[in-house]
Description:
CATH class of the largest domain: Alpha Beta
Radius of gyration: 19 Å
Amino acid sequence: MTAWPNKRFLDVLRIDLPIIQAPMAGASGAEMAIAVARAGGLGSLPCAILSIEQAHAEIARFRAAGSWPLNLNFFCHAPPALDRERDAAWKKALAPYYEELAITPDAALAAPTRSPFNESMCGLVEASRPEVVSFHFGLPDGDLLNRVKATGAKVLSTATTVGEARWLEAHGCDALIAQGAEAGGHRGMFLTRDVTTQVGTLALVPQVVDAVSIPVIAAGGIADARGIVAAFALGAGLVQIGTAYLFCPEAIIDPLHRAALLRARDTDTAITNMMTGRPARAIMNRLMREMGPMSPSAPEFPLASSALAPLRSAARTPEDFAQRWSGQAAPLGIELPAEVLTRQLADRTRAF
């Protein structure tokens, strides 16, 4: 491969390599983004579970290390109202586990908050002026989006269907991420709730490319040069890689999560709403195996995680209720520093 397929968009983003590090909330931070940016890719900072102060600190760390472009990522879900009936049903479903661990269903432990993009976060964007702002679960309302675009930032968001891709283009995205069902973490779906019809990367990317005129970034199941070459053959101009970066020392994951990734097989993940209330691909745990990965009782995102927090704290075996995001390509992962991995992915792709 003598040239990257969409050099124009690389020039717009001011990056050398068509590789975007997925903004994995809770699993990556400034250290990861710096390493990927240093190699020539686009480093990303996940801001959805950070306070404004924490986000400013992470941005400052990145800016102090170099002058590379930066992607700030946010969630765009609607804040849920507490549904007491559904909450009671969820706790009833979990009751056998509470009894087993001798804890009460009202045990209070804080779960990570996941805030949707709002006025304060828009102010963060205006103050920090990142080169790229990406969203998950659609886009913010028009006023906030216009303010983001007024900073000069390029706007990306995730599509899991052709319909979502067309919607994102019509609502002002500069490029979109076509997220196949193989991807780890939360599905970016926002026009549908039917997880059974989610499309794999191989089928999704060319259909999205045919449906829109803006650049398409392929995501899901891409962990080595073969996946990148395939994505380019399907019409994508860039790739977004997540799970492969979880094997890097810069990943902010616990040792048990790392060990689970290292022994993962192709069939060890499933899409589940049990962890947060929204479909996401994770390594199977006891809860997912015994109750099934999808539950109609799970409260709206992100409320489901609150009732699980005391179970995770009291579990005799950490894997029982662990939230360990992973895509289906985890068996392809290798343990390398993020900068080395990024360069290796690019070099091996060029060698095809």
